[in-house]
Amino acid sequence: MEKMKKKHLIFFMNLMMAILLGSNALAYLDPNTGGVILNTIWPFIVAFFSAVGAFTIKYFWKPIKKAFSKLITKN
Questions:
Q1: How many domains is the chain partitioned into structurally?
Q2: pTM, whole model, 2 decimals?
Q3: Where does the chain have alpha helices with state H?
Q4: Domain carrying residue 41
Q5: Average confidence (pLDDT) over 51-57
Q6: Model confidence pLDDT, tens digit, residues 33-51
Q7: In the chain, what is the straight-line distance between the N-terminal and C-terminal CA atoms, in Å?
Q8: DSSP letter (8 states) at residue 32
């Protein structure tokens, strides 16, 4: 158990040294990078709202159906 803690501590210390003592990275982001990021993120947003919408419709289907059937029978 003590050996495992020591390995974790060594790993954590090496990670912190690499983060804190690392040099600056010079990188170029071209104009299409923003588009690529948006094209990666928007399907997840659409999928989330689709899942929420599907759950809402499934959960409230009977009350919605009842409300519409009342509207149709009145006319």
A1: 1
A2: 0.46
A3: 2-21, 33-59, 61-74
A4: 2-74
A5: 92
A6: 888 989 999 999 999 999 9
A7: 76
A8: T
